[in-house]
Structures are given as C-alpha cells and as structure tokens.
Amino acid sequence: MAVYTEVSDEALTAFLAEYDLGSLLSYKGIAEGVENSNFFLHTTAGSFILTLYEKRVREEDLPFFLNLMGHLFRAGLSCPQPVKNRHDTALGSLCGRPAAIISFLDGVSVKRPTADHCRELGRALAGLHHAGRDFGMTRANNLSVGAWRPLFEQAGTQADTVAAGLRARTLEDLALLEASWPRDLPSGVIHADLFTDNVFFIGDELSGIIDFYFACTDALAYDLAICLNAWCFEADGRYDRAMGAAMIAGYQESRPLEPREVEALPVLARGAAMRFMLTRLVDWLNVPPGALVQPKDPLEYDRRLAFHRTVSHASDYGWTG
Predict the structure, then answer these.
(1) How open is the CA angle 143-149-153, to the nearest 5 degrees?
(2) What residue ranges in the chain does DSSP mark as E strands?
(3) How does DSSP assign 74-129, residue by residue?
(4) Which residue in 9, 53, 3 sits closest to 27, CA to CA?
(5) What is the pLDDT of residues 68-93, one digit of tens each?
(6) Using an 8 Å Cβ cutoff, are 4 and 293 in contact?
(7) Under 8 Å CB-to-CB from 18, ≥6 apart: which residues?
(8) Which of 18, 45, 53, 255 could form a disulfide with 98 if both were Cys (CB 3.0 to 4.6 A apart)?
C-alpha cells in the first residue's frame, strides 16, 4: 500500500473543514502507486481522492500539476479536476505534507491490456498532447537523461546485489543514451508516467487518465515511448509488436509522427526503460522504515532494456509508416 504518511480522523476532519464537501463518511489508503500517500475519500458530497505529496514531488511543482489537470479537464480530456477550498486554492497542508483533493473518476485499470486497449490509449495520448498545446505553464523533465547517471550513483555498488552484472550493463547503456539522446524533437506537455494503473476503462472504452505528478514539458514522442514500455511487454520481457502497432496507429490517427520522431523512437524507448529501471532500483534499495509500500521490481525494466538493445528501427515496435 502506498501510504507514507498516516492521517488521523481528527487531522482529516480539520482539513476538510476548509472545503465545502460536507461531512467525512470514510477514507482508506490506496494500494496502487509508490510516490505519494493516496486515500479514497467519501463525504456527504461524494467521492474524491486525497493526495499527500511525498518523495520526488517538489512543492514548487504542484501548481503546474494542479493547473494542468484543470486545463486538460476544461479542454475535454477525461481526467481528475482539483477541488478548491474556501480560500479558492486547490493546494493545502495536511500532517506536515502538501495535500490536495481531486475529483473521483469512474472506471477500472486493466491488468492485461489488449491491442484494443492499446489503440484507445494511443488515441487518448494524442488527445492529451493536443489539449496541452495552449497550456501556459512549462516544467522541465527532472527525470530526463541528465538525471539518470546521478540516479544510478545513488545505487552505487549495491546494483549487483539486485542482479548479477546490472552495474556494468547499466553503465554501458547510460553512455550510449547520453551520447545519442535527441534534443530537437517536437515538444509540449507530456504525462510521463502513463502506466496501466493510471488509465481507466469502462468496458472497452477509455474513461479517464489520472496521476499527472510527473507531467512536464518534453518530447511528445518520448511520452509514446514510455507507453510502449508500460503497455506492450509480456511479464517475461517479450515485446508484443501487435499491441505496439495498435498503440502507434491510434496515436497517429490525429497526430502523425514526424520522420525525425520515427527515427528517434528506438533510443527514446530505450531511454524510457532506463528511466524506470533506475527509479525503481533506487526505491528498491531505499524503502523508508515503516512505510506501507511495496517497491516495484527494477528487473522488469532490466529485461525490457535487453529487448531494446536488439532494436534497430521503429518498425520493431510496430510502426508501419
């Protein structure tokens, strides 16, 4: 369970007194996620999500995240809407942590996505990129290629305690990615963390996108590369090209990739796998004492990196031109 900060009934009741959300009925921790403390919140006014921001989320970035959700919601994207308190702000403080309440979305995440789910996700991702074009704020991606070597240094010599040879192959991949990372691709607002548990479906229809707390300004095709990693691999590390083809086709229905983005897709996908392997590795080695959280396995992305090393062209991911 991703709960780093426990919240008492008394503290939550006092916090809710600043909102027009009625009386507290119940709340409980949310099992998914590893970055923040999240709770299902039920009041006499309805259902909401309460988030206490922890770990990598910087307080100065929170206005970007919360304003972005509001902007995308107004643009027609199905995503949570921050709830403002009586002081007309969406950001407060609870148990010594920055905190916010956002609207609840109906739907469920899929554990084993199909090609149809991937096509829907591609369409929604392109819609997110279109909706973010006129968002007036920017935020640098603080987990892009320049952050990866410092992240790996946090693991240090412990990397090989997680898997034999992990340190050597990671250093080799880092050198290649740092030398070849593209710098001139079409950019804009990206989600940057669009895993299956951050996308809801009702039946086969995508009903919502959540968890914008890694959103930033970066290459749009990098967002697609993250999704290919998160949605199109089997547990044993095998890549499902049919699922990748469906996702890319869904994306290109409204935003065709430019030739330079197609050319860059292999290195972007490899870099996306590196980013998540490294953050998982650091989390795996540094679980806070007493935290109710199960860190995610970094070796899942180590296996994906093994596939990316064999790729020579975007067609290997399902791009058909």
Answers:
(1) 115
(2) 24-29, 37-43, 46-52, 92-94, 97-103, 187-190, 199-202, 205-209, 216-219
(3) HTT-----BPP-TTS-S-EEETTEEEEEEE----B--SS--HHHHHHHHHHHHHHH
(4) 9
(5) 999 999 999 999 999 999 999 999 99
(6) yes
(7) 85, 86, 87, 92
(8) 53
